[in-house]
Amino acid sequence: MKDPERLVLDLEGVELGPALTELHGKVAAGDPYIDKLRVGRNRPGVIRLVLDLKAEVKPQVFTLKPIAEYGHRLVLDIYPLEPPDPLAALIEADSKLARREEKAGPESAAPPDKPKVARMATIVIDPGHGGEDPGARGRHGSLEKDINLTISKRLKALIDAEPEMRAVLTRDADFYVPLQVRVDKARRVKADLFVSVHADAFIRPNARGSSVFALSERRATSEAARWLAKKENEADLVGGVNIDVKDKYLAQTLLDLSQTATIDYSLRLGNAVLGELGHVNTLHKARVEQASFAVLKSPDVPSILVETAFISNPEEEKRLNDDAYQDQLVRAILAGIKRYLAKHPPRPSPVAMN
Predict the structure, then answer these.
(1) How confident is the model over 91-126, as pLDDT tens digits?
(2) Of 59, 113, 120, 162, which is least packed with CB atoms within 10 Å of its CB?
(3) Domains observed in the chain
């Protein structure tokens, strides 16, 4: 509804209980789109929710079937007509720097014999799962999504402390991010590397060890790899992604793939990281495996998926929750990244010339 902008949702056959009457208190003051929320009885048998909006939006409503501790759900997604990307700030910062260089004039430009300057390596860290997609669950109740996020934040802190590296998280809290959006975020910030962090699980509790995966253009290299790839890719169905949009994206991605070189560099990165992880934990496989993970399908960003350990193994689940072990893991991953970048540094950026 217009003048002012409002979003109205009528629920038929629903009683006005505490879950609805207390909704207004869940809208944060700094919410970028919702000003306030009102709930009331519109007419007999109909409850009306009114969201007073701060800007024009494009809503999408869909349902989700029961999964884990969740029952049937009605999901209302609110998209702005011009969606901002929280990662776009990095791109904007680079643009501002270029504009400052232009305003400084020709005298500040690099001399003709130095047309290139070194640049920081951008590493996108992808904490697997999140929100309503918990990932695997350990025997002692640990959730993969939580462990992935904790380890990813530790890794980001270490990378940001490096003078020539910066890290970006695809999620920094417990919320769901569709697989293709994770890839998009890496490409939008012109990532040099993409590292997806997971905690493995298998039907046998004695399965153990760390693994590293890169993308395969063919069939997965083992039954376990195929099973794991299928499990991870089905996460989009859990998140309620519009399947038509997903299929279109994947079809376009597959058509545009010219990934031979990217996969080769992904394997090199994977080998460097796997070698370092071998000093911290038993390796599930002594080589980098390849599987069709959707999150690794960026055509121009070397990408790996790190299975830090088996959360389904009670002993490894305990270690995954240990601060000291997490620190060892992230230091090993960082060491592998640094080994790779020493041989394959980011391409230098051209200096803006007036």
Answers:
(1) 665 666 666 666 665 555 445 554 454 578 999 999
(2) 113
(3) 6-80 (2.60.40.3500), 107-349 (3.40.630.40)
